């Protein structure tokens, strides 16, 4: 039996299991485990690996799953994620799918448990062990180096501008190369007093994982580097160039998939971090 992120125990699936993945990075991972032929449903955001993923039926998005389509495809297992899928949607899926596997990686090393969980349930333990070895090697390479500490802001949206808290997978990925994301935990806790003092650069709510913020001279002085992610907002080099001129601060466009996707993509993501550190 294998335990998912909610503590639910899952037995080994039958050889004819029909899998639906409502998580883009998990869809890619299932292909990496050799389970592509068992996938019967995915979201429209599940775009990797190309072109194999095109053969899998789409059932809406991560937040707006088309339940009638999913039901018609008769999956025996659905893989969901605490952050990416709505709880009410998952509760509805439980009424017609016998096995709902909940995932929630919060840090790069959590991918090891994710590989073992899906590899174990779907009889792909050898493939999962191979991925674990590759991830361990990539982590060891980064952790063996002493990285200079840099204060960075990782922007995921504009209108309003939004960033990530320290309590996110993205922030913990960046920490592997010494990049500490703004805001600090103390910054979030000081949000109310900051607004009283007229400094609206502070995040809008203590403890919020993806807080909104406003640019200010005080904020810019706190930063060494701004990172613009290519997802979920589609920031481009033009955005980066314009913001760099506005802030007079280095701004780097970042491949959001490499930094925020877990699963098998995380292995290449760790190598990508090393490349980023050399560019900055």
Describe the structure.
- By secondary structure, the chain is of the alpha/beta class.
- A hairpin with a 5-residue loop joins strand 1 (2-3) and strand 2.
- It is built from 12 helices and 12 strands.
- The chain folds into 2 domains: 2-141, Rossmann fold (3-Layer(aba) Sandwich); 150-279, Rossmann fold.
- The model is unreliable at 188-204 (pLDDT under 50).
- The strands form 4 sheets. Strands 4-3-5-6 form a 4-stranded parallel β-sheet, with helices on one face. A 4-stranded parallel β-sheet has the order 9-7-11-12.
- Helix 4 (111-121) runs antiparallel to helix 5.
Record keyword descriptors for this entry.
15% strand, four-stranded parallel sheet, 2 domains, 280 residues, globular, alpha/beta, 38% helix, 12 helices, Rossmann fold, 12 strands
